[in-house]
Amino acid sequence: MYLLIVALPLVGTLATGLGGRWIGRKGANVFSTSCVIICCFLSLVAFFEVGLCGVPCYLSISPWISSGALKISWGFLFDSLTTTMLVVITFISSLVHLYSIQYMEYDPHCPRFMSFLEIFTFFMIILVTADNFVQMFLGWEGVGLASYLLINFWYTRLCANQAAIKALIVNRVGDFGLSLGIFSIFYLFGSVDYELVFSSASMYTDYTIHFLGLTIHYLTLIGFFLLIGAIGKSAQLGLHTWLPDAMEGPTPVSALIHAATMVTAGVFLIVRCSPLINLSPNILFLITIIGSSTAFFASLVGLFQNDIKRVIAYSTCSQLGYMTFVCGLSYYNVGMFHLVNHAFFKALLFLSAGSVIHALSNEQDMRRMGSLLNNLPITYAAMLIGSLSLAGFPFLTGFYSKDLIIELTQISYYSNLQISYGIFACWLANIAVFFTSFYTFRLIFLTFIKNSNSYRKHIENIHESPLLILIPLILLGFFSIFVGFLTKDLFVGVGTHFWSAAINVLPMSYNLLEVEFMSYSIKWLPFMLSTLGAFLAYTINIGIFKKNTKFAYTYIFRKLSFLLSKKVYWDKLYNSLIISPLMNFGYIISFKNIDRGFIELLGPYGISRVIKNWSIKIIKIQTGQITHYTFFIVTGLCFLLLLAPAWVFLELFLDIRLLTFCFLALFVV
Amino acid sequence: MITQLYCENYTFFLFFLGVLGIFLNQKSIIIVIMSLEIMFLSVSFNFIYFSIYLDNIIGQLFALAILTVAASESSIGLAILVVYYRIRNTITIELMSLTKG
Fold first, then answer.
1. Nearest by CB to A627, which of B26, B98, B100?
2. Computed over its alpha carbons, how large is the radius of gyration of chain B?
3. For residue A474, what pLDDT is reported?
4. CA–CA separation, B69 and B64 (whole Å)
5. What is the C-alpha to C-alpha distance for residues A471 and A369, in angstroms, rounded to an integer?
6. Is A622's CB within 8 Å of B93's CB?
7. Which end of chain A has fewer beta carbons closer than 10 Å to its terminal beta carbon, N or C?
8. Nearest-CA distance from A637 to chain B in Å?
């Protein structure tokens, strides 16, 4: 059964990808969807067995690579962490499959799309079920590849091509970090198996290496490399630029990749490597700083985005920041909890955005929407649930994890806890809550409630989406309401045994109990902030400030909103500071100067030119004049006679046999 | 009387004169052949001188051989010269540059 979870998506992708021509559109839809739905049920069973009954399953299949000390085998590890991820992945994936049957109805390449979705699911499952780093890396790279294929699904569009290449390359920066991390893990532990690495990690806490005169704490180095991998895949600040651009793919793809699964792989990596990362406080510090900066920055940039998918993409980025920094505070279980919850409501948001886009004849700009409340009631309800959940409305899914995360940062105000960087995270997270609530409600107001701005033609054609689109929305809506409450005690409850050995939480910084006894004024703060954000969005968009354009046209506000809608010029900076110098370096220096210049000059081109020049010069010696020939004969004789006394010395350096051989060779050739 | 030691110098001087004749002469090919004859003569003179000096007959035999070789060589050379002249109507050395590299 456990192997079937891994194998079914592979079967599905191969059948629909290679046999799509024969089984046709309907066949591909039904086959791939049923494959992944069965996989979903199986992983629910696995979740029951492993997570609830507490029976981890470890399958060692066959040796893969065996070279000296390096022994890697195919193995599948199903512990509570894996099965949690499995449930999320397969559930979201099966709903996305179901959704895209209808959504991609008029697309001519439906089997290919299904195959790509399925191969993505497959690689994601490989990623989470792997029992060693290399197999995990296989899934990691495969997910990147699948994201390339999916973003580039409409490959005739230039934007899609560029976005896909960007996604792949920016991810590859992180992948490089991860591969360095795997190398350094192998260097230290001599193995890449999770069980060996994690069980023996605590023996190397004082291990240092010396490199270029620096003394480096080795576990910090490993953690740093793993963190780079997580930054790339989870779109943390610095390598986040690919995520919003990746919205060029079809909407179900955004829901699958950029909401629920692929971007969570980075967080999954951090959580999986918790026994390693816990041992280097500097890396925990770094993770916290980067995660909270991401949460803040992405929510800030999301404020004035006008593309409905981009807003959600930035909120994804922001929520990933939350997950990451709570891992940095060493509450990996809370990070996983938020990951699970976030997957449900973010998939819901994306799919409802897709429903809106579908209804409006592929209009994505929020400024051209409005007053869809009457036309798309179910989509509105779904979107509202998702938004409230995202904004952390009490008793919805998002509340249980997000508020807990913020409370965990708030507790670092107690000075005797020695986690001062938590205060940084606390500030940024609280501000991010305000921003999050602002942009989600801005999205709701602009899309559903404000007066319509769309074309008459679009409004005439508007219709609530068909059943196959609504079913996933409704299901995800239910889950977005209830999952947080249902799994709260399981994932982060007091003394829960769920994570058993899968997650290593630092005992000394484990303050989940203290969080429960914080003062109410602090506990209410996030809720207040999000209410304030929603209220502000209301007043600006449909409330009293709606008509007040004076404020909107002030110089500072205009510049600020322009800056924010341009993503704070981050891409521009990257382009002009890193990418274009690199491209120029590649063309001018490494291609034109070194490859076609220097090496060619030393190599074929230069040598042939030198030989040609010299041969022309030597040819010119033969003038045809007898006098010149006699001159050469006589001077040659004189030269040889002069050289004759020097032969005694030359003999030492020249082998006469070799010279004879060369001389003979001249005639032979 | 020419002493024995001076003989060596004379033969060398003659040979050098022949070389210079080939060298410095830019006009007539006949002069080249004459210079060649001078060189042959100097060499055979040298052989004869050394055969007397070392009291060895081989040198004189060589001188005889050289005389015959020189005679046949000059006849062949003159024949080539005549053929050349028939074709090109000139025997000026400066204009003999058909075999330019």
1. B26
2. 17
3. 93
4. 9
5. 24
6. no
7. C
8. 13
Q: Could you report the per-residue pLDDT of A261-275, keeping only the tens digit for each?
A: 888 999 999 999 998
For B86-95, how does the pLDDT look when each residue is reduced to its tens digit (9 = 90+)? 988 888 887 7
Instruction: State how far the Cα of A537 lies from the Cα of A545, in Å rounded to an integer.
Output: 10
A343 within 8 A of A264, measured Cβ to Cβ = yes
Q: ipTM, 2 decimals? A: 0.84
- Residue where the block lists tokens 């005169």: A213
Q: Is the pLDDT of residue A415 over 70?
A: no
pLDDT of residue A207 exceeding 90, the answer is no
Q: Can you name the residues that pair with A71 across neighbouring β-strands?
A: A66
> Which chain B residues are Cβ-neighbours of A615 within 8 angstroms?
none
DSSP string over A494-553: TT--TTTTT----GGG--HHHHTTS-HHHHHHHHHHHHHHHHHHHHHHTSTTSS-HHHHT
Ranges of each domain in chain B: 1-88
* Inter-chain residue contact B23 with A621, CB threshold 8 Å: no
> Is residue A224 a contact partner of residue A173, using CB atoms and an 8 Å limit?
no
Decide if B100 and A624 are in contact by the 8 Å CB cutoff. Answer: yes
| Token pair listed for A62 | 């066959």
Alpha-carbon distance of A444 to A373, in angstroms, equals 9
Q: How far apart are CA A376 and CA A385, in angstroms?
A: 14
Residues contacting residue A280 through CB under 8 Å, at least 6 positions apart:
A217, A219, A220, A222, A223
Count other Cβ atoms within 10 Å, centred on residue A584. 11
Interchain CB distance below 8 Å, A630 and B22: yes
Residues with Cβ within 8 Å of residue A612, at least 6 apart in sequence: none
Asked if B97 and A625 count as a contact pair (C-beta separation under 8 A), the reply is: yes
Maximum distance among all Cα pairs of chain A, rounded to whole angstroms: 114
Across A202-227, average pLDDT: 88
Question: How many other C-beta atoms lie within 10 A of the C-beta of residue A215?
Answer: 8
* H-run or E-run covering A77: strand A70-78
DSSP state of A128: H
The burial of A55, by beta-carbon neighbours within 10 Å (0-12 exposed, 13-18 middle, 19 or more buried), is given as exposed
- Backbone φ and ψ for A127, nearest 5 degrees, come out as -60, -45
| d(C-alpha A640, C-alpha A646), whole Å | 10
Identify the residue among A614, A626, A631, A637 best suited for mutation to test binding to B, counting B beta carbons within 10 A and taking the highest: A626
Beta bridge partners of A59: A76
pTM assigned to the model: 0.82
- A391 with A530: CB under 8 angstroms? yes
Nearest chain B CA: its distance from A665 CA (Å): 23
3-state helix, strand, coil in chain B (%, to 5): 75, 0, 20
Tokens of A34: 């049923």
Q: Could you give the angle at which helices A218-233 and A281-302 cross, rounded to 10 degrees?
A: 20
Fold (CATH) for B1-88: Helix Hairpins (1.10.287)
Q: Looking at beta carbons, which residues of chain A come within 8 Å of B39? A: none
Note whether A198 and A504 are within 8 A (CB): yes
pLDDT score of A26 more than 70: yes
Tokens 């909401």 belong to residue: A259
Q: In whole angstroms, what is the distance from residue A401 CA to residue A335 CA?
A: 8
* Residue that is written with structure tokens 């195959």 in the block: A115
Which residues on neighbouring strands pair with residue A76, listed in sequence order?
A59, A130
- For residue range A461-502, list pLDDT tens digits in order: 888 888 888 999 999 999 999 988 988 888 888 778 888 777
Strand partners, A132: A193
d(CA B71, CA B94): 26
Cβ–Cβ < 8 Å for A16, A97: no
- The C-alpha atoms of residue A464 and residue A356 are separated, in whole angstroms, by 9
Is A617 within 8 Å of chain B by CB? no
What pLDDT, on a 0 to 100 scale, did the predictor assign at position A608?
A: 87
d(CA A10, CA A573): 41
